[in-house]
Design a protein that fits this description.
Elements (H helix, E strand, L loop, with lengths): L12 E2 L2 E2 H31 L4 H30 L1 H18 L6 H18 L15 H30 L1 H22 L24 H21 L5 H8 L1 E2 L1 E2 L2 E2 L8 H22 L6 H25 L5 E2 H28 L6 H23 L7 H20 L2 H7 L1 H4 L3
Parallel strand pairs: 3-6
Antiparallel strand pairs: 1-2, 4-5
Helix pairs in contact: 1-2, 1-5, 1-6, 2-3, 2-4, 2-12, 3-4, 3-6, 5-6, 5-9, 5-11, 7-11, 7-12, 7-13, 9-11, 10-11, 10-13, 11-12
């Protein structure tokens, strides 16, 4: 007996999407609030409170973000084979909440970072891999669901620096870290409440009509995804500098004064998620119109264009830093940088996540999504290494180097267009 679709377009909806997407959206929003709240403070906390050298702080920042995206590789397998996606989300969220509260105590700093990374391993691949189960075969809403989900990431990312960053800067770093922990608890409670709107999980053991998944049967798909992951690794070497060296430049190289008010440095971290929320609806409408006209762009081309746009954002920052000759630059240039940067990001990251989830073999959804986070792991580690160069060159040259890294990523992604079309049926008809 064949399995029935887990969801269909006729099911009750919220905002035109399955109700379960709202539950996953809100759970992810608060988890991202906790992550970005802690991230907005981390490099400042290490350099200003723990008095670590810039190079050491940048490396720890990169190593932490790398570990946070390495543990999902193991966590995805555990979720698929042992725990199930729902239980993995609950356990992972609980561990992460404990880690965020540990950040409020200075002696537990490294233990807290490790605890958050551990919990993230179970949580991160298990939540977005449930999106596919909300839609029946051929449901057209599925292709845009990941961009909707990505907005949830950025609502949390927008609120986090404003709340956690302000508490950390003005009232004490530990208050900011504590607020991040509260956000994680909020996400866990929403998920527990909303499980009634999620479809039942498929059985984790093999069934007569669904034979065990063999790696050999999907070799070409896996090789294509490895190529995408390597390209995204290069891209994130530049992309991840936003919370690292770019944040340091916002503190020392930016004129943050407005009519006698000094804009808190952590507030600039809210620009990127705010722009994601503003840009996503018109971008989705544009993609939908192009798809209706049969002119939808293939995933590889879309991601390559996005990497070129991100490169342009860094070249702009390089030109601003060079023209100001070591003086503090006007903060409006920084706003323009984030506008260009965010547009490029929207073409790359949601597209890549959706590609990995869409091409996942049966019963390996969390594992395949975890492979996407492997690219974030390696990219974050490389970003930490790149960040150590900040103290050894001037900002203009450093930002120009980041632009060059993004261009290399664009070339790699563009070269994958034909291989992706060979394994992705939805990409074959794209021009």
């Amino acid at each position: 007996m064949s399995r029935a679709p887990l969801a269909a377009a006729a099911d009750p909806t919220w905002f035109g999407q399955p109700r379960g997407l709202t539950v996953l959206f809100l759970t992810n929003m608060w988890e991202q609030f906790s992550y970005y709240g802690m991230r907005a403070l981390l490099v400042y906390y290490m350099t200003k409170e723990l008095l670590l050298a810039q190079g050491q702080a940048s490396f720890i920042y990169g190593a932490y973000t790398a570990c946070a995206y390495f543990t999902p590789i193991v966590g995805g397998v555990i979720a698929d084979r042992l725990l199930g996606k729902r239980r993995a989300v609950v356990i992972g969220a609980s561990i992460m909440a404990a880690g965020h509260f540990m950040m409020a105590f200075e002696p537990l700093f490294y233990v807290a970072l490790g605890t958050i990374a551990l919990g993230n391993g179970l949580f991160l691949p298990s939540l977005p891999s449930q999106i596919n189960d909300l839609y029946g075969p051929g449901d057209p809403r599925r292709s845009w669901a990941y961009n909707v989900y990505y907005v949830g990431i950025n609502i949390g990312g927008f609120l986090a620096p404003l709340i956690c960053g302000t508490l950390g800067e003005f009232y004490g770093w530990h208050y900011g870290f504590g607020a991040a922990g509260i956000g994680m608890v909020a996400g866990l409670l929403i998920y527990l409440w909303g499980q009634r709107y999620l479809p039942p999980e498929a059985p984790r053991q093999a069934t007569p009509d669904l034979p065990p998944t063999r790696w050999a049967d999907h070799r070409r798909t896996f090789l294509v995804l490895v190529g995408v992951a390597l390209s995204v690794t290069v891209f994130r070497g530049a992309y991840e500098q936003v919370g690292n060296t770019v944040a340091l430049w916002a503190d020392t190289g930016l004129d943050r004064g407005v009519a006698g008010f000094l804009i808190p440095m952590t507030w600039f971290q809210s620009l990127n998620p705010l722009l994601v929320m503003l840009m996503t609806p018109p971008l989705l409408a544009w993609w939908r119109r192009r798809a209706d006209e049969g002119r939808d762009t293939s995933p590889a081309k879309r991601m390559a264009v996005g990497a070129v746009v991100v490169a342009g954002a860094y070249f702009l920052l390089s030109a601003v830093a060079w023209s100001d000759g070591g003086e503090r630059s006007a903060w409006l240039w920084f706003v323009l940088f984030f506008a260009i940067f965010t547009f490029g990001e929207l073409l790359v990251l949601p597209t890549g996540l959706g590609l990995f989830a869409r091409l996942a073999p049966p019963r390996l959804g969390a594992t395949t999504v975890a492979a996407w986070y492997l690219a974030i792991f390696t990219g974050s580690l490389s970003a930490g290494l790149v960040g150590t160069l900040w103290s050894h060159t001037d900002p203009a040259r450093f930002f120009a180097m980041l632009g060059g890294i993004a261009l290399v990523a664009a070339a790699l992604l563009r070269s994958l267009d034909r291989p992706i079309r060979s394994v992705d049926p939805t990409a074959r008809k794209a021009p």
